[in-house]
Specification:
Layout (H helix, E strand, L loop, with lengths): L4 H10 L5 H12 L4 H8 L3 H22 L1 H28 L4 H18 L1
Helix pairs in contact: 1-2, 1-4, 2-4, 3-4, 5-6
C-alpha cells in the first residue's frame, strides 16, 4: 500500500516534469514502498540525500498542483461522470417502470457508454 496516496496521484500527473532521479526516488518511496535507507543503498548516496531529494520533489509536485490544478479538475470531472451514470441508471429504471420507451432506453445506454469512455 502506498505511503501517501495523494503524493502518488501527484506523481502520476506531474512526474514527467521532474528530473529522472527525482521521479525514480518518489517511485521507489511511494509506489514500491522502499525505505530511505534502501533507496540510498541502491543508488549510492546517503539516506539524508535521498530524503532531501524526495522533499524537494514533493514540494515541486505540490506547487505544480497549486498552479495547474490538474488533479482537482480530474476529480471534478470524475465526480460529474459518476453523477451522469447515476442519473442515466435512474432514468432507465423509471423507463422500465413506465412502459419502456425504446428511444429513452437507447439514449440512456448511449449516455452511459459515453460516460464510461470518458472516465477511462
Amino acid at each position: 500500500m502506498a505511503k501517501d496516496l495523494e503524493m502518488t496521484i501527484l506523481l502520476d500527473f506531474y512526474g514527467d516534469m521532474l528530473t529522472p532521479k527525482q521521479r525514480d526516488f518518489l517511485d521507489y518511496y511511494y509506489n514500491q514502498d522502499y525505505s530511505l535507507a534502501e533507496i540510498a543503498a541502491n543508488v549510492g548516496i546517503t539516506r539524508q540525500g535521498v530524503r532531501d531529494a524526495i522533499k524537494r520533489a514533493e514540494t515541486q509536485l505540490t506547487e505544480m498542483e497549486e498552479r495547474l490544478k490538474l488533479v482537482e479538475r480530474f476529480r471534478e470531472v470524475k465526480k460529474g461522470l459518476d453523477e451522469i451514470m447515476d442519473c442515466a441508471t435512474k432514468i432507465s429504471a423509471e423507463n422500465r417502470k413506465s412502459g419502456l420507451s425504446r428511444e429513452i432506453n437507447d439514449l440512456t445506454v448511449r449516455i452511459k457508454s459515453i460516460a464510461i469512455s470518458l472516465s477511462e
